[in-house]
Design goal:
This protein has 19 helices and ten strands. The chain has a six-stranded mixed beta sheet, with helices on one face. It is globular. It starts with 8 loop residues before the first strand and ends with a strand.
Length: 469
C-alpha cells in the first residue's frame, strides 16, 4: 500500500471524466457542486506514484495535530472536529441527528470558534502587553494561520475577515457602522470567490450573522439572558428556514428550543474541554460524559422524529418571498403573513388534481412512484438495489426525492419480486422512512424477503401477499 500523507506530491495516471448532472429532479447536483469548487473533471486512477514528501509547514502541522489527537483514548472524534474542523470520524447516525435537529452548525468551525480562540489569546496578551496594535496583530496572525490549518472553508474565512475589519474599526477609531462592515465582508468574500454565494455553510453563517447585527438594537433592549438567547435562536431559525427547506426539504421546529440547551452545553463544556483535552488527554474522560449527554438528547429527538416538518422544494421566487416577509416580521410586522406562506407551501399538494407516475433512476433495477391527486395517497413499486456496493439509493436518492415533492410517508410499498435489484433497498427504506403498508408477491419467500418481513413485524407494519383482484 502506498504511504501518502497530506501535502505529498503524487503523479496519477488515469481516465478523466466529465461529472454528470443529477438524474432525479430536485436532488443534489454533483456536477454543479464541483463546478462551484472550480473542479471540472473527475479521474479514475489507474496508477499512483509518490514524487516527493510534503514541504508545506501548514500541512505538516495539521498532520502532527491529527496524529496527536488520534492518540487520545476518549472522544478523539470531537476533539478533531473542534480543533481541525474534521467531522469525518463522527458516527453517521449521530451526525445525521445533529443535522436533522438543526444543531450541526455547532460542529463546524465558524464565528463561535474564532471568537473564542481570539478572546483567549487576547486575554493572555493583555496581561503581557498594553499595546493593542501588537495584541490584535498577534491574534490576527494566529487566526490567519488557523484558517489555513482548518482548510479555509468559507465560514471560517468569513469569520476571519469579520474579526479583522471589526478590529481595525476599533483600533483606528473609524466608527463605521456594524452593518456597513458586514456588507464590506460580503463584497470582499465575493471578490475572493464569487462561487461562495452557492456554498450552504456561507449562506447560513453570513445571513445569520448579518441579521443578528442588523437587529442588534433589539437584542440590546432585552435584559433577561434567557429571553435574549431565545430571541437569537428564533432569529437564527427563521433565517435558516428557507435554506433548510430548499436544500434538505425539511425543518425541525424543536431546534429553536434545543439550541437553548445545546449551545451552552457545547460552548461552556464540550468545546473548551476539547481544547484542554488536546493538552491534557486525561480530561477527555470528563469530556466524554458531556458528549454522551449531547448524543443521547440528539438521538432521542432524531429517532422519534420529533418536530420534523417536510416541505416540497421551493422555487427561488418563493425563497425571496420568504425572506421579504421574514425581515418585515423582524421589523415588527405580524407573523401571520409568514404563517400564511408556510401553510400554503406545506399544503399545496392538496390542490394538485393530477395523478403522477414517476420512474426513478436507481441505477439498477426499477423503482416507480405513483402519486394520487389531491395528495390522497402515494405508492412506491420496488426500490432498486445495487449489488456489491455500499451506496444507498434510498438514503441518497429515493427519500430525498420523496421529501422534495412534499411526501413524508408512503401508503403502500409494493415489492414485485425478491430479486436484489428490485427490493434490495426495501429494508433501508423501512428503517428511514414512514411506510404504512407493504405488499409482497406470491410464492415462497427468499432470504431477503424473510429479512424484510422480520423488520415489518418488529415495526408493526402491515404486510400482505398474493393479492388478487
Amino acid at each position: 500500500m502506498l504511504d501518502i500523507s497530506l501535502g505529498d506530491k503524487v503523479a496519477i495516471t488515469g481516465y478523466l471524466k466529465e461529472p454528470s448532472n443529477n438524474t432525479i429532479p430536485n436532488l443534489f447536483n454533483y456536477k454543479k457542486y464541483l463546478y462551484y469548487n472550480n473542479i471540472h473533471y473527475t479521474m479514475t486512477a489507474k496508477d499512483i506514484k509518490k514524487i516527493s514528501n510534503n514541504t508545506n509547514i501548514i500541512y505538516y502541522l495539521r498532520e502532527l495535530i491529527s496524529l496527536r489527537i488520534d492518540k487520545i483514548f476518549k472522544s478523539s472524534e470531537y476533539i478533531k472536529t473542534f480543533i481541525l474542523g474534521d467531522t469525518s470520524m463522527l458516527d453517521a447516525e449521530i451526525s445525521n441527528s445533529y443535522r436533522q435537529n438543526g444543531i450541526s452548525h455547532l460542529f463546524s468551525i465558524s464565528g463561535m470558534h474564532i471568537s473564542l480562540f481570539a478572546s483567549i489569546i487576547l486575554y493572555i496578551l493583555k496581561r503581557i502587553s498594553y499595546n493593542n496594535y501588537y495584541n490584535y496583530g498577534v491574534v490576527i496572525l494566529f487566526l490567519s494561520i488557523y484558517t489555513l490549518l482548518v482548510g479555509s472553508s468559507p465560514s471560517v474565512i468569513r469569520s476571519l475577515i469579520m474579526y479583522i475589519l471589526f478590529s481595525l474599526n476599533k483600533l483606528l477609531n473609524i466608527k463605521s457602522k456594524s452593518i456597513d462592515i458586514m456588507l464590506l465582508v460580503l463584497i470582499i468574500m465575493l471578490i475572493i470567490n464569487p462561487y461562495y454565494l452557492y456554498n450552504i455553510s456561507f449562506q447560513y453563517s453570513y445571513l445569520i450573522s448579518f441579521t443578528l447585527v442588523l437587529f442588534s438594537y433589539k437584542l440590546k433592549n432585552i435584559k433577561n439572558k434567557t429571553k435574549k438567547s431565545l430571541y437569537i435562536s428564533y432569529i437564527s431559525f427563521l433565517i435558516s428556514f428557507p435554506i433548510c427547506i430548499y436544500n434538505f426539504y425539511q425543518v425541525n421546529i424543536i431546534s429553536i428550543f434545543l439550541n437553548l440547551l445545546v449551545i451552552p452545553l457545547v460552548n461552556i463544556f464540550i468545546f473548551p474541554l476539547s481544547l484542554i483535552s488536546f493538552i491534557i488527554p486525561q480530561i477527555s474522560y470528563i469530556l466524554s460524559i458531556f458528549i454522551k449527554i449531547l448524543e443521547v438528547i440528539s438521538l432521542f429527538i432524531y429517532n422519534h422524529n420529533l418536530g420534523v416538518i417536510t416541505f416540497s422544494k421551493p422555487s427561488i421566487i418563493l425563497i425571496i418571498i420568504y425572506y421579504i416577509f421574514i425581515y418585515l416580521h423582524l421589523y415588527n410586522y405580524r407573523l401571520l403573513f409568514i404563517f400564511i406562506i408556510i401553510f400554503t407551501h406545506k399544503f399545496y399538494n392538496y390542490l394538485d388534481s393530477n395523478i403522477k407516475v414517476i420512474s426513478l433512476d436507481v441505477g439498477q433495477g426499477d423503482s416507480t412512484l405513483i402519486k394520487y391527486p389531491y395528495n390522497q395517497g402515494n405508492i412506491l413499486i420496488d426500490t432498486g438495489g445495487l449489488t456489491n456496493s455500499d451506496y444507498s439509493i434510498t438514503i441518497n436518492k429515493t427519500i430525498p426525492y420523496l421529501k422534495s415533492i412534499g411526501i413524508n410517508h408512503l401508503n403502500y410499498l409494493i415489492i414485485t419480486h425478491g430479486d436484489y435489484d428490485h427490493m434490495g433497498e426495501a429494508i433501508n427504506l423501512i428503517e428511514n422512512f414512514k411506510v404504512e403498508n407493504v405488499i409482497l408477491n406470491c410464492g415462497l419467500y427468499n432470504d431477503l424477503e424473510k429479512e424484510l418481513i422480520k423488520l415489518l413485524e418488529k415495526k408493526k407494519i402491515s404486510y400482505y401477499s398474493c393479492i388478487k383482484k
